[in-house]
Design goal:
single chain; 456 residues; alpha+beta; 2 domains; 16 helices; 21% strand; globular; disordered C terminus
């Protein structure tokens, strides 16, 4: 995407006339976003602001993206990024417990948050006339969160119960966790975003205060504002609310590189599940790699729908699986292309793995054809463009691609890359990445009473 002319708006001169060093606003230029433009700004304290005007409805989506996720955690302190997704809705210096949510509810706002490997973000979708309130509230919790023993302990128990429900009492969640932990020995993608249970239970208020002071700073945050806004008024409100905040000294954001895998890794689990399961993880490139778009279309062609090649062969035709699915991770660093399948009654995990391997082997003789490529591209285009339908969807896409790829307009860059993928590219990435010597396999044996794991 190309930048539009970068002449600073005239109102910045007035906004900066009496600004401090921290609150002075610099204009970073305009960035094409389809038929629209993202205006880019940065405060002197490092806070980045991305703004896209859309006056079709009196609604605004306000996102705060922090460049911190589970990849920034160290062993023994896993799950802190996710815990903060909960803590940030609690008491602040100037707002009592529950007051934040009540004020937003009264304003008619829709609000939530999410955390993953590379980022954490918070959002409000709100009537346009309530935006000043949102700005004040978000600045308040970025600077003045209270982390006392009682609230921290309460949220730790909430997260521990979430882990029990989503991982320890859920076979699919437990298998995915084991797959990533075995596939990555050095890189922090090894540990789950929700954290290991022992770490969750052992967090102290001091741990939380250190994490907050380190990562929840204006120079580690990006505000994404999409909707019915007056840029001068919004920037004035941001300048007043955030301009007094200090930048933090950020740690290095580059984790250790995962060494090349030198052979297939196989784990066997026994889980209380009615039928056997199989989970595969092939090493896959990061989202910005030139091969990622092709790998995404290959995954769609093989696993993305009932019409996909693997689903038709394993579920419809041979009836050895009741379902099969997969995806290529969309992370900053190299991750996994996952394939998951559930065996039909009477079928073993080993037999199901053999059937999958046969299908992989046939790709050399019968690669993805033009019709399969077109269907896969149409599906991925639909998913991407549907995500841009609403102001909230556009704000999330802008924030996500800015956080992961440093490219706020990355959704359209992604679309261009998907459209450029050829059938030859699909054949090439299948040969390059579907390599048994660089994959991890989890074979799940059905057992209603026994839970355990042993390396093959």
């Amino acid at each position: 995407m190309t930048n539009a002319p970068s002449t600073a708006p005239g109102f910045l001169r007035l906004l900066n006339a009496k600004a401090t060093k921290r609150s002075k606003i610099a204009y970073l230029g305009a960035l094409a976003f389809g038929a629209q433009q993202i205006q880019q700004y940065r405060l002197g304290n490092g806070l980045k602001v991305l703004m896209l005007e859309d006056h079709r409805a009196p609604i605004v989506s306000y996102n705060t993206w922090f460049r911190v996720g589970s990849r920034h955690e160290r062993e023994g302190k896993t799950g802190l990024a996710h815990l903060f997704e909960h803590l940030m809705f609690n008491e602040t210096k100037n707002l009592g417990a529950g007051r934040f949510d009540k004020l937003l509810e009264r304003a008619g706002a829709e609000t939530n948050a999410a955390t993953w490997n590379d980022w954490t973000f918070y959002y409000e979708n709100v009537p346009a006339d309530q935006l000043p309130l949102v700005i004040k509230l978000e600045a308040e919790r970025m600077a003045n969160l209270v982390l006392r023993k009682g609230p921290v302990g309460s949220e730790k128990e909430v997260v521990a119960n979430e882990r029990r429900y989503r991982v320890e009492d859920d076979v699919s969640g437990a298998v995915a966790e084991v797959l990533w932990a075995e596939a990555f020995k050095v890189h922090p993608y090894h540990h789950p975003t929700i954290g290991w249970m022992a770490d969750i239970l052992n967090f102290t208020p001091a741990d939380c205060r250190a994490f907050y002071k380190t990562w929840y700073a204006p120079n580690n945050a990006t505000l994404v504002i999409v909707g019915d806004v007056d840029p001068a008024k919004v920037l004035r409100a941001i300048q007043r609310a955030y301009g007094g905040l200090s930048a933090a000294r950020l740690p290095s954001l580059d984790p250790q590189t995962e060494p090349d895998q030198d052979g297939e890794r196989v784990l066997r689990l026994e889980k209380p599940t009615p039928t056997d399961k199989v989970a595969l993880g092939y090493k896959a490139p990061g989202l910005d790699h030139p091969d990622h778009a092709a790998l995404t279309l290959l995954s769609e062609a093989l696993l993305g729908s009932r019409a996909s090649r693997f689903f038709h062969a394993l579920v419809t035709e041979r009836e050895v699986a009741s379902d099969v699915s997969g995806w290529a991770s969309t992370f900053r660093d190299p991750g996994l292309w996952e394939i998951s399948a559930t065996a039909t009654p009477g079928q073993t995990a080993e037999a199901l793995l053999g059937a999958i391997d046969q299908l992989v082997d046939t790709l050399a003789a019968t690669p993805i054809n033009a019709d399969e490529r077109e269907r896969s591209l149409a599906k991925q285009e639909l998913l991407l463009l549907r995500g841009l339908d609403t102001v909230g969807g556009r704000a999330e896409q802008i924030g996500f691609f800015d956080a992961v790829l440093d490219d706020p307009a990355g959704a359209f860059t992604r679309l261009e890359r998907l459209r450029a993928v050829t059938v030859a590219d699909l054949d090439r990435v299948a040969r390059r990445y579907l390599v048994r010597g660089a994959r991890t396999v989890v074979l799940v044996k059905a057992d209603r009473g026994l839970e355990g794991a042993e390396a093959a």
